[in-house]
UniProtKB/TrEMBL annotation:
Transmembrane segments: none annotated. Keywords: Isomerase, Magnesium, Metal-binding, Phosphoprotein. GO terms for molecular function: intramolecular phosphotransferase activity; metal ion binding. Belongs to the phosphohexose mutase family. It comes from Methylobacterium tarhaniae. It comes from the Bacteria. This is Phosphoglucomutase. Residues 26-157, 176-273, 279-392 form the Alpha-D-phosphohexomutase alpha/beta/alpha domain.
Amino acid sequence: MFPKPHAALTPNTFAFEALPLVAPTGFREYDARWLFPKDLNLMGVQALGLGLGTLVHELGVRPDIVTGHDFRAYSASIKLALIAGMQAAGLRVKDIGLCLSPMAYFGQFALDCPCVAMVTASHNDNGWTGVKMGAERPMTFGPAEMGRLKEIVLSGAFQYRDGGAYQFVPDFAQVYLDDLVSRAKPLTRRLKVVAACGNGTAGAFAPALLERLGCEVVPLDVEADATFPRYNPNPEDMAMLHAIADTVKATGADVGLGFDGDGDRCGVVDEQGHEIFADKVGVMLARDLSLQHPNARFVVDVKSTGLFASDPELKARGVETDYWKTGHSYIKRRVNELNALAGFEKSGHFFFNAPVGRGYDDGLLTAIAVIEMLDRNPGKSLSQLYAALPTTFGSPTMSPHCADEEKYGVVERVTARFREMHERAETLGGAAITDLVTVNGVRVSTADGTWGLVRASSNKPELVVVVESPVSRARLEEMFRAVDGVLRENPQVGAYNQTI
């Protein structure tokens, strides 16, 4: 029998090489993330594969699974250890090699595999690894499946089965790119596009796709370098957005597109070098798509702008928008449940349902949607389309450090504090509290439409803070100070990664 995993082992010891290490904190709400090898060793990855195979059979799902890995120095070894465990648990594995997360999701359809296990730490710093998993295409695991997987792995309750198999699928990237090109409409004008990949996996695929679409491509940080020397490939990171903006202005590009480490997100910069936060890009795409598809319905996360509900154009067309929990698995599932046309997250995860896409998040398909929106508006630049939106003042996503063991408790206390202030008719930032949304953390709104959000990050030891005001930048800053003041009542909250 495979040994029961340990929660901690000392590196450079016999025990570290002889026993599986799996830190419990690596099991997140909808995927898994660990520092490797601090919190997870290769035997621990085998245990994860055994646990995943055990869960797939427990769920009664056909045991065919597609797997692949992102570009990091250790990802291939992580994947091979995962495959060893999955085979031992009776899974029939189809390995598509180096790939993007949406390429693996596409593989569930193209290779007829109900299940997926994508080895990636997405945009996390070098040193992180993880797995995005699913057993019901196009959805990925949520808290129930992740909780059960955690139980199986940490208790060592593995079920071995015969029938495990392995097949490597050559040249699958070409099949994926061909499919994307077939879904795109021919462009009527040649657009100059900056393609920024942060030295991550997307550099192997995104520039080639954009060239096939007929764009003039300006590559930025597309060379492979798993140390991410300039910045993490994260389109929410202002360092990446500023680098894209500088290149757009220097080259006279029509648009700048930034892809995250595993290619399921896309950030956007206009031709003037202004970074457009992804939720505002979502409003622009909702306007564009609702013209092509009447009676469209959208899903957005609670971090997103209030414009999805208040934009006059969307309201005039009867567009319905559902605000839901942040997280790619949550939004993906909600889009599927409501049969929405698309889902948008402020993080840059965009989910296009039929007839545009297959319901999963794909940064390259998002790039196509942005390019087609520009092509359908030949007399307008991206900055003009953005300027047509009602003005709001929004923050980037700001993440103060907070330990995984502490962050959910902090959010509970902050939620209780805001609820108490509301009940006592206390003001927040000088304005009365009018509403609390607690579907995912707490989103507190005031009478003038200004709001602030606090939630626990689902994949890092951090909190997530976002603020927006339709009034003024001064009001935005006032709300941030007020929300941060409540946060600072908790000494477990550390420094921000970035602020307004």
